[in-house]
Amino acid sequence: MLHLHHSWLCFRSWLAGMLSVLLGLVPSASSNISTSRPNILLLMADDLGIGDIGCYGNNTMRTPNIDRLAEDGVKLTQHISAASLCTPSRAAFLTGRYPVRSGMVSSIGYRVLQWTGASGGLPTNETTFAKILKEKGYATGLIGKWHLGLNCESASDHCHHPLHHGFDHFYGMPFSLMGDCAHWELSEKRVNLEQKLNFLFQVLALVALTLVAGKLTHLIPVSWTPVIWSAL
Questions:
Q1: Which residues form the Sulfatase N-terminal domain (predicted)?
Q2: Known catalytic residue at 158
């Protein structure tokens, strides 16, 4: 664990260093654009392997635009993902930290967070690469799936919105956590609660049907009052 922790600290330092190097690049074609900065485009896709795009050897599916970006840039061949699913992998991608350190990982195995009207999300004090770029004068934007939380105290405060994590613009889907708007509660706990409530409702329905059947067949000497109350 200490080795992994040290590796992630090194990765985060490397990420900050690489961004500094990229931001320091100056085009040499013309002296009158010395203040320009390179455009940075990061693509993240769920369930995409390194061999699924053309520039890495796929000859059954055409990806000409991505291939052209690779031709004009740098191809990397080594990478370790912090998680295999949506929410935790995005948290690690944005911050360079293990998702468990920001609370963006499940406690009981429900690792893909689903509900939009939910509480909790990526803490606003996390440092994302978007915040770093924005501090350097970049215009930042996010297009696509966010999936890192949306609300805190209510279903409309949007405290975990991408605009609070360094992005100037957002156009996409805020698919988020599963749970009620209780601050910092792990939303997956609601799933376990719903399972218990569903079982309770099934037991009550069975009791109500048994009482009704017993009353109608005169097998159970009971008045209609408990039958009605159990049905309600």
A1: 38-172
A2: no
